[in-house]
Amino acid sequence: MMIHEITSKVGRYKGRKRIGRGPGSGHGKTSGRGHKGAGSRSGHKRRAYFEGGQMTWARRMPKRGFTNAIFRTEYHVVNLKTLEQRCEDGATVNLETLSKVGIIRDTKKPLKILGEGELTKRLDVTAAKLSKSAMAKITAAGGNVTEVPLKKWTRPAKTVKKAAAAATPEPAVETPASEETAQD
C-alpha cells in the first residue's frame, strides 16, 4: 500500500503484526526471529556499531593527525549593520543588552563585533573581540570601544577527596605532667 492509496475506508493506522499465532498467519513458530542465536532470545540488544564480531568500522579506519578543535573559543558574532538597524543612538552594546533585544541567544559565549556595514549612530560597545574595521567605524561615529579580555583556560587544581581528609585523625594535644599534678 502506498501513501496515495490510503482512503478513509482503509483507515489511518496500520494494524500491528500479531506474531506467534500459528502457521497460517505467516508469523508463527519462530515469530520472525529465525532459528537459534542471540537474536532469537529475549532481552537481546545489539550494541551500537557491533558488526557480528568482525573488526568494527571505527577501528578499521586509520587515525592520523591532531586537532585543536575542542579548545576553540566560539563567539556570538554581530556585524555593525545589525547594530545600526536594531540599536538606538547612544545605546550601550554588550552581551546583556544584545540578548534582551534578541540579536543573540544568550550570554554564555563571548561577543565579537565585525565591521560589515556602515554605522551612523554613537554606540558604547563592550565586547571580547572587535575587528579593526569595526573599531575604526565605531570611534569614527563618536562611540566608545571597550575590549574585555577572555580568561585563559587552565587545568583545574587536583582536590583532595573529602572522605580521605575526614578520615585522618587530628593530633591529640598532650598536657605536660607538671600541669596534671597541679590540677589534682
Instruction: Work out the radius of gyration.
Output: 35 Å
In total, the number of strands is 6
What is the architecture of the domain at 71-147 at the second tier of CATH? Answer: Ribosomal Protein L15, Chain: K, domain 2
Strand content: 5-15%
Helix segment count?
A: 6
CATH hierarchy, class of the domain at 71-147? Alpha Beta
Question: Could you estimate the helical fraction of the residues in percent?
Answer: 10-25%
Q: Give the SSE string.
A: HEHEHEEEHEHH
How many strands, what sense, and barrel or not for the largest sheet?
3 strands, parallel
Give the termini separation.
103 Å
Q: Assign the CATH topology of the domain at 71-147.
A: Ribosomal Protein L15, Chain: K, domain 2
Low-confidence runs:
none
Strand order of the largest sheet: 1-3-5
Shape: flat
Structural class: alpha/beta
Mean pLDDT: 87
Protein model, in words:
By secondary structure, the protein is of the alpha/beta class. It has a domain at 71-147: Ribosomal Protein L15, Chain: K, domain 2, CATH 3.100.10.10. The protein has helices at residues 57-60, 80-86, 95-101, 132-140, 162-167, 177-183; strands at residues 76-79, 92-93, 111-114, 124-127, 129-130, 144-147. The strands form two sheets. Strands 1-3-5 form a three-stranded parallel β-sheet. The N and C termini lie far apart (103 Å).
